[in-house]
Write a structure and sequence with these properties.
The chain is an alpha+beta fold. It contains 11 helices and 25 strands. 31% of the residues lie in helices and 30% in strands. Helix 1 packs antiparallel against helix 5. It binds one RNA strand through strand 1, helix 8 and helix 9.
Length: 458
RNA sequence: GGGCCUGUGGGCUAGCUUGGUAUACUUGUGGCUUUGGGAGCCAUUGACUCCGGUUCAAAUCCGGGCAGGCCCA
């Protein structure tokens, strides 16, 4: 699908580094547009930091290094010289930004500092790579904030989740918010909230995460401010990020056997017009199709008039693979009846729209498509979870019966590791938004009020 | 980290065992014809992953590099 819809070209001769081709990049840009819109609207300022980080800065936070040093790229030479201080190609930008934050933040009046950037980042992935889902050059956004207190940092996380809700609504994507286990949190974080979605094979895909750092980075990077009383204090920090995996999720969650199904909000073309010509009426129909296009464009709808010299059926298949939400067919019969025929990509429902109410008619259908796609995706995710009382209910292999599992967990590391190892599954975490629960730990049997989620992951 | 496999026009592929002429389909281009679910006909462009070795001769055999895929940890 990635190839046939021309989303990316993976023939570039570096493993895990693919070329964004125009159609795929257009979709990604729409995703980025929503991210930018939401972050700007909540008082974040966009910045752009250098790609390279001196080894000396990179090594300041110990856990962070341990988490990343097996997967960073190094610049060791420049021209003909070997560098005295090697440079890290950013795997994420904490260690690039925080030395600068230390210079920028001086007073409590500088806080909160809320920044973000949309850039590419590099991780030396050794597993099998696949477009959008596991790549070595990752297109993502990362927001980094500094606060005068843990409480204010916590408020930032609530705001991040609100931003997430709005973005995911545009993408019609469901998600879990799970507080990651201690052994799986981001290197250097106080805690991590993972954002996961379920793929059609019931494996989960992490789309992004939100981290609370407390002062774990501000201490080694010496990011301090002077409060009202003249005291110097370390800032509390958070980060939030999501990647091109959002596009991977869009493809997998919404797509069907005929190709992509794009949510109207991110479709490069929301409507495609296919004129149905015959020898006699070619000129009339072409002119009418052009008027249709102009009217929709004037109405603020992204529309493509497919005037290629090809048969209509072939064009239909083409735009179905590309996931265009709504197809309009205009032929002699439609013109006589003063209507245009439509076909929905998500349900393949067909009907007609009166030409006198073209723009509102198309808008209504696009809105309906969006709501239906969102509802259908959430329904799938909700139905994918199975609550289990015994770990024996988890299939040993990756079978069609596999699901996402919820179960009681006492919360200790030993039980957690034992469960993961015995069943070849990953504990995604505990609900970030608390869920009422009373039961027994699935491993040790102790009574617990903690529910955990686990799944096999992509 | 360990093991196995593969590289032939833009895509997919035959040929490799047994060395000699590179095959089909598709796509692209031009033309004719056609247009309410992947039409047809004619013409045409276009390839042996790279370096080295063996040989009169290498897509084919040997060595190495690069790239990709799969399995296990």
């Amino acid at each position: 699908m990635v190839e046939r819809a021309a989303l990316s070209d993976k023939r570039y001769p570096i493993k895990g580094m693919n070329v964004w081709t125009p159609y795929g990049w257009k979709i990604m840009r729409f995703v980025d547009t929503y991210i930018r819109r939401e972050l700007d609207a909540t008082g974040h300022d966009e910045v752009c930091f250098p790609l390279l980080i001196p080894e000396t800065e990179f090594k300041k936070e110990k856990d962070h290094i341990k988490g990343f040093d097996s997967e960073v790229y190094w610049v060791t030479h420049a021209g003909l010289n070997e560098l005295d201080v090697r440079l890290v190609v950013r795997p994420t930008s904490e260690t690039a930004m925080y030395p600068m934050f230390a210079l920028w933040v001086r007073s409590h009046q500088d806080l909160p500092l809320k920044t973000y950037q949309i850039v590419n980042t590099f991780r030396y992935e050794t597993k099998q790579t696949r477009p959008f889902i596991r790549v070595r050059e990752i297109h993502f956004f990362e927001s980094h904030t500094c606060h005068d207190s843990e409480e204010d940092a916590q408020r930032q996380i609530e705001e991040d989740l609100e931003i997430l809700r709005r973005i995911m609504k545009e993408l019609c994507l469901p998600y879990f918010l799970l507080r990651r286990t201690e052994w799986d949190k981001f290197p250097g974080a106080h805690y991590t909230v993972g954002i996961d979605t379920v793929m059609p094979n019931y494996r989960t895909l992490q789309l992004g995460s939100v981290h609370h750092y407390r002062t774990n980075f501000s201490v080694p990077y010496d990011i301090t401010y002077e409060d009202e009383n003249g005291e110097h204090k370390h800032v509390h920090q958070t980060t939030y990020g999501m990647s091109e995996r959002l596009l991977g999720a869009l493809i997998s969650v919404h797509g069907d056997d005929d190709g992509l199904v794009l949510p109207p909000a991110v479709a490069p073309f929301q409507v495609v017009i296919v004129p149905i010509l015959s020898k006699k009426n070619a000129e009339v129909v072409t002119a009418a199709a052009e008027r249709l296009r102009d009217e929709l464009t004037a109405g603020g709808i992204r529309v493509k008039l497919d005037d290629r010299d090809d048969r209509p059926g072939s064009k239909f298949y083409d735009w179905e693979i590309k996931g265009v939400p709504l197809r309009l067919e205009l032929g002699g019969r439609d013109i006589e009846n003063n209507v245009v025929t439509f076909a929905r990509r998500d349900t393949s429902e067909k009907g007609t729209i009166g030409l006198e109410s073209l723009v509102p008619g198309v808008r209504l259908i696009l809105d309906t498509i969006m709501h239906d796609m969102e509802a259908k995706a959430w329904e799938f995710q909700n139905s994918s979870v199975r609550h289990i009382e015994s770990a024996d209910e988890i299939p040993k292999e990756d079978t069609a019966e596999q699901r996402v599992y919820s179960f009681g967990w006492c919360g200790c590391d030993e039980c957690g590791h034992a469960f993961e190892d015995a069943h070849d599954i990953k504990i995604l975490g505990t609900p970030y938004i608390p869920e009422e629960f009373e039961g027994k730990c699935i491993i040790c049997g102790k009574p617990t009020k903690t529910k955990a989620y686990a799944a096999r992951t992509m």
